[in-house]
Sequence to fold (273 residues):
Amino acid sequence: MQIQVVTFSEVKDGNAADEWQDGASGGVAGDGTGTARFIVVDGATGAFDAVRWVDQLVTSFVPPPGADHAGPRPPGLEPAAMRAWFARMQDQWAADVPAFDSIIEERKFREVGSFATFLGFEITGLDGPDPFWRAVALGDTVLFHVRAGRLIATFPPMRAGEFGSHPAGLHTLPSSLDEMTDRLLAGGGVLADGDFLFAATDAMADWILRAAERDEAKVFHTLAELAHPDVFARLVEDQRKEQDGAKRMKNDDVTLMRLRMLADQPSFLLACR
Fold:
């Protein structure tokens, strides 16, 4: 089975493009194992250098093409492997000490650190009849499994309105290691031809759940048909506007990764730049 992948993103209204604090990456492994791996993370506003922490997590969990394969391997999704990865990420963060502009910045690095919600998942069995997704998560970056326009799984299991300002996530401080390990969630499901997986950071995920309460088929059709970043940007802009006295989408960085399962290769490829 093939996977068609596209990632859309939009920065918080009023911010520059390089202030995007989310991260997303993934694809099919080139080792012939029939496995694909993906990550979506959301750096916390106000954390110390959230962009650097996000980049470190993304490139470690899904090494970019051409990366040094002699380095540490990406982690397995088992609890022990994830705990070891958490510790390795914290050690790397502590070792890569940046140049500080002030003593206040240095104290923030040492005492506050950085933080990001995390969703990592794999699709296995792509070379067989029953591919399967497995995921681990900390926080409110969410995976939606959709079949024929209907939501059949949400991971982590969340409902509209449950997205708060203090989610679980990956923290740079070693004192958080036990708590992160204890709060790590795992899930999975069988995939079929034509299924979609949507991975979304919190503002987008909350909007999806709220929109699905009104018309589930409509929202997932809209997301399935998104064909260009400009269309996504207009959707986000429209939903951030106040309507009936309230905004339907929180003004925050938003990221949406869309995966479509296909039994055959698509007849055409759309590349967005």
In short: The chain has a mean pLDDT of 90. The two ends are 26 Å apart (CA to CA). Helices lie at 50-61, 79-95, 103-112, 177-183, 202-225, 229-240. The CA atoms of residues 196 and 260 lie 5 Å apart.
